[in-house]
Amino acid sequence: xxxxxxxxxxxxxxxxxxxxxxxxxxxxxxxxxxxxxxxxxxxxxxxxxxxxxxxxxxxxxxxxxxxxxxxxxxxxxxxxxxxxxxxxxxxxxxxxxxxxxxxxxxxxxxxxxxxxxxxxxxxxxxxxxxxxxxxxxxxxxxxxxxxxxxxxxxxxxxxxxxxxxxxxxxxxxxxxxxxxxxxxxxxxxxxxxxxxxxxxxxxxxxxxxxxxxxxxxxxxxxxxxxxxxxxxxxxxxxxxxxxxxxxxxxxxxxxxxxxxxxxxxxxxxxxxxxxxxxxxxxxxxxxxxxxxxxxxxxxxxxxxxxxxxxxxxxxxxxxxxxxx
Length: 324
Prior knowledge:
This protein is of the alpha/beta class.
């Protein structure tokens, strides 16, 4: 080989080698379709990122997290899902209300659900033990918990005979939970009025229409209501109605009284476990869907007193958190 050709060969190899190494060491990318707002998901996202760091995944250091927020507007799910798929992310984190659109956008990129009302009935997975698709994650089992929530409400208000349930009727999971509340209410001798909504503008007039007709509003949690939880509590407070939520974060202002359900931060921390496994080579369809391991009961005593409720001591004693 001539000296000039040899030098050219060495120079070309030196340039190609770093590119090849970079390709092999390409950082992982996590796409997050935030169905609600960044503010609403703030504590949960913090827990998610903290758990990832425990596994060695640090945003900006060999791994990137791409956040996109739908702000509770389901019409944006498809656009965001397509955007993340076109970015060729390694895994997509989202929740049940947006899962259908993400599944329509990709059948190959793994999808982790941080929360889904009923992933089997919603068609996200074949079964909890064997998802069988590119989807796995955590179930909220809200329909099953609905009965327990109504029992708690009856304990908080022994004379409870009439209440209302608010749900985003555009999300099948929330609609099923609303039906479960109505069925359970009939069994307990409680008249339950359904309050379906489809957009944020529906909230205030829907709750105002309940004044003097109900003193409890059960809120079926989904991204639309989470994005507007403060508005829901404010409207309920104005009509002298106490709200029952599925997570403690949403009763920490006036209007919210009782919350019973899986801990949001814990759900997202567990979701990070799923993401870690997938980034290390596991297949989503092989990882069983988990059910809640931590259920919190919280009571806002300050709001209860403002509404004229006297919460029985045994209920306060069992609560994981009492806000005074």
